[in-house]
Amino acid sequence: MNRVPLAERMRPQSLEEVIGQDEIIGQGKILTEIVRKGEPVNLIFWGPPGTGKTTLARILAREYNADFVELSAVTAKKKDIEEVVERARTNWNLHTRTVLFVDEIHRFNKAQQDAFLPHVESGLIILIGATTENPSFEVISPLISRSRVVIVSPLKKENIVEVLCRAIGAERVEKRVSREAIEFIAEISGGDARSALGDLELALSLAKKVDKQVVQTAIGQKMPMYDKGGDYHYNNISAFIKSMRGSDVDATLYYLARMVMSGEDPKFIARRMVIFASEDIGLAGNGALNLAVSCFQAIERVGMPEGEIILSHVAVVLAKARKSRETYDGWAQAKKVAAMSMNSPVPIWLRNAPTSLMKNLGYGEGQKWEAGFHLDKSYLPEDVQDKPIFGVKGNYNHNQE
After folding, report:
1. Contact 154, 76 (CB under 8 A)
2. DSSP code, position 281
3. Residue 341 and which of 70, 307, 314, 394 are 20 to 30 A apart at CA?
4. What is the rounded CA–CA span in Å between residue 229 and residue 133?
């Protein structure tokens, strides 16, 4: 006998039933206000899996009394889009709105996304897209400009616990599931309500009494949610670098562990550490660059999992090191000044004088072939001598004993 999955049975039917998402639902919040005013808005829901993007789209369509059409950008073809437009025209003649929900809208190419534009502009279609990727990079600008981007956040642990308790009550299995099991499912859900409900349903199918051990047996080892080419990849490496910059050793190791456990390329991590050593530590710790380069070479030679120790060792050193941006800022200023004066003549006394004529003209005048020889003149072209370069921005120096 076919049975609707628990996650589908527990899908909220109104905004009031939605758990979490307090930033977008509630008095004065965007989705509540859209429903209150009764004026449909094109929306792009951006958030991780299992946070309710599809549910919110269905609720809005119901509130609009609209015909709800759902497409998956993974499987939809040009013919499917044409059929939706034709259906929307029929609805229009019947004075019925059409809400088109496109799941994983980032999977549509530019031409497919362009196909929606005239129908969105005319109001024939109310478009609601869902994406796990940053829409700034994955959704064409004309669609974004005609839509409101709404961030749908991962649910907090207490939200997941509430979702699970609601489901347990609805299924009347309160006596079968321990509190420890509920807490454990919520802990490992990663803010994904659909995943949590699926874990609960599987555990209930395996045993009459569900405790933590039963849940562990049911779900095995969960793979972390990590996309090497997407936001999770960039958010984690960004947090790792900023933690080293802020000399927070605990956070540095935490984000390093997340990346390593998710299968991130260790050489990618090591490369970013090499950059960090020069960019953020610089003159405050001249040995940091050599250490970071040695880390990269060691990762190439040793590999994983032993390389984890090398990565963590060097990451801690970089986090605890004193910080200086003198060389980074100086280089940025040098490029800025050079870009404005590329044709400024090099001072004549800095030029080589391979011929007697050039010597007579003053080329290389006053120079001596001595180590550390310095003439008391500006070595810069005349028209940029008043433009300081090194130290111009007032570097910061964060000391960490």
Report:
1. no
2. I
3. 394
4. 10
Sequence-separated contacts (24+) of 112-117 with Cβ below 8 Å: 112/73, 112/78, 112/81, 113/139, 113/140, 113/143, 114/140, 114/142, 115/78, 115/81, 116/81, 116/143, 117/142, 117/143, 117/146
For residue 143, CA distances in Å to 71, 81, 112, 386 come to 17, 16, 11, 48
Determine the distance from the C-alpha atom of residue 171 to the mean position of all C-alpha atoms in its chain, rounded to a whole number. Answer: 37
Spatial CA neighbour of 125 closest among 147, 145, 153, 109: 147
Between CA 158 and CA 394 the distance in angstroms is 46
- Whose tokens are 């001598």? That residue is 385
Q: What's this model's pTM, rounded to 2 decimal places?
A: 0.63
- 380, 338 contact by CB (below 8 A): no
User: What are the C-alpha distances in Å from 222 to residues 184, 218, 334?
Assistant: 13, 11, 50
Residue 185 · residue 199 · CB < 8 Å:
yes
What percentage of residues in the chain have a pLDDT greater than 70?
Answer: 94
**Is 50 exceeded by the pLDDT of residue 385?**
yes
- Check if the beta carbon of residue 291 is closer than 8 Å to that of residue 314: yes
Confidence band, pLDDT 50/70/90 cuts, at residue 133:
confident
- What are 45's strand-pairing partners? 130, 150
- Whether the pLDDT of residue 395 is over 60: the answer is no
Q: Which neighbouring-strand residues pair with 103?
A: 72, 130
| Tokens standing for residue 95 | 């004075």
Q: How far is CA 379 from CA 104, 318, 330, 348, 354, in A?
A: 58, 35, 16, 10, 20
Q: Is 290 exposed, middle or buried (0-12, 13-18, 19+ CB in 10 A)?
A: exposed
CA-CA distance, 126 to 70, in Å (whole number)?
12
Contacts of 246 by beta carbon, 8 Å cutoff, 6+ apart: none
Rounded average pLDDT over 245-272: 90
* 325 DSSP 8-state letter: -
The CA distances from residue 280 to 88, 173, 389, 396, 398, in Å, are 56, 56, 18, 10, 10
Contacts of 341 (CB under 8 A, 6+ apart): 381, 383, 384
**What is the H or E stretch that residue 150 is in?**
strand 148-151
pLDDT over 50 at 401, yes or no? no
